Amino acid sequence: MVSRWFKILYVINWHGLLNKFMIKKILGKLYQSIIRFSLVANSLRKIYRSGGYSTYTIATLNHGRILDGKNVLVTGGASGIGLAIARKCLSEGAQVLITGRSQQKLSSVADDINSLMLKTLSWDISQIDELENMLSKAIGLLGGRIDILVNNAGVLLGTQFPHVTEDVWDKIYSINSKGLFFLTQSICKVWLNESNKTVKKVLNISSQGGFVGATYPYRLSKWDVAGLTQGLGIKLASKGILVNGIAPGIVATEMQPGCLRQKENMYSPHNPLERYALPEEIAELAVFLMSDSSNFIVGQTIICDGGYSLK
Question: In the prediction, which pLDDT does 199 show?
């Protein structure tokens, strides 16, 4: 295309006012203008599709292996927030076991991270009758001890009131509420019977939906999680078990495929910041709550939703 325009300009240069160098310079500027126009047009398309455009630079903290020597169990750790938390824990010196229902996803993550400090276990926490056996396997994979439980596993099915069926309700609650409760109970029983009374921690991943009006099972289940965090926080603090939580807003995960389709455009109209979060942002907060830097925080769920729940 540039070569064709070069010939055209050369032909119409009747008076010899333009030499080859000047023509090349003009064409170069024309080409740059076309590129800039293309970039602007592409950005306008993204704004049109998403309703706006937003970018943000995420900074991460290096705490200096603040979780060194800790054994961490992360449910639902093969993707999204759980995987981001697992990666951050590994970078801070922890040994991490991630669980999930897909062995293929777990194996893919293990191959990608390629660390001897990462363990995987295919585990559906909604299967309560298998809980004790699976927990025993988890403890074995972590060398005989769990120090921190991250209750991240959860499902989101889009059915809303007044079209919720019993099957949808049961599928959501079996993992988000029931599975979380019984796993936490079983691990806390182990901790309460240990002679080693070092501080243990439970971190529950709730949702911004647990702090606003709820009319469908996913949000209702997250109210459960927030309530359990407060209740167990009070009940277990004196036993050396600290329970806290995080309530994320809209995060770019498989649960929010629209965010993933937007790629680098982080725009979201649903909160005052007008953007969605990245899983790594939630992981930064999670590691702080899991560390001994937060040992005076009890039963709190920290809302990380860009201001959504304040509206």
Answer: 97
